[in-house]
Amino acid sequence: xxxxxxxxxxxxxxxxxxxxxxxxxxxxxxxxxxxxxxxxxxxxxxxxxxxxxxxxxxxxxxxxxxxxxxxxxxxxxxxxxxxxxxxxxxxxxxxxxxxxxxxxxxxxxxxxxxxxxxxxxxxxxxxxxxxxxxxxxxxxxxxxxxxxxxxxxxxxxxxxxxxxxxxxxxxxxxxxxxxxxxxxxxxxxxxxxxxxxxxxxxxxxxxxxxxxxxxxxxxxxxxxx
Length: 225
Hints:
This protein is 55% helix and 20% strand. The protein is built from 7 helices and 5 strands. The chain has helices at residues 2-26, 41-50, 57-63, 77-88, 139-154, 161-204, 212-221; strands at 31-38, 68-74, 94-100, 113-122, 127-138. The protein has a 5-stranded mixed β-sheet with strand order 1-2-5-4-3. The chain is flat and about 100 Å long.
């Protein structure tokens, strides 16, 4: 359990470094919130039994890859893929599995980007590769998933068909909100870029040189520029 905790700590450090660097360079952070969780031994054993995995340490390490988990909440859909690329490009991070539920949502409407990454943890006597499940989603996706999770457990995993249809419709609404907000964000960024370009262009123009005679005549008449 300690090695999985250290795996979370290592990956959290990387994420925070990337967040601060990106914010410094672009004056914008693609990450809204980061959270982590470590499965309890009881939860691990329950899942191992459900998967018919032998209850040995080696078999659990091999078959249960989401003992350590990190969730990143982003502002926009494009940010989820940007963050995944930034983390995957780290030389000591190995991507074991990618499930793109944003491009291919689950039947209930669930959308999120899931990655299983392996990160080295440097112990006193060895280097322990640790798998960490990484979930990356937008604020709207996270809001929907949180409420769906509560409803799922309230009905013991069997959600009535009418309610399931409404949940799917709500997921579609959340997706439309994501698309709309990102479009508005891009339009505002484009307008700001155009204004910035105009300001640079105007500032780059040399000052107008007026003839001395015209300046003297204007001063005598009390005219100002």
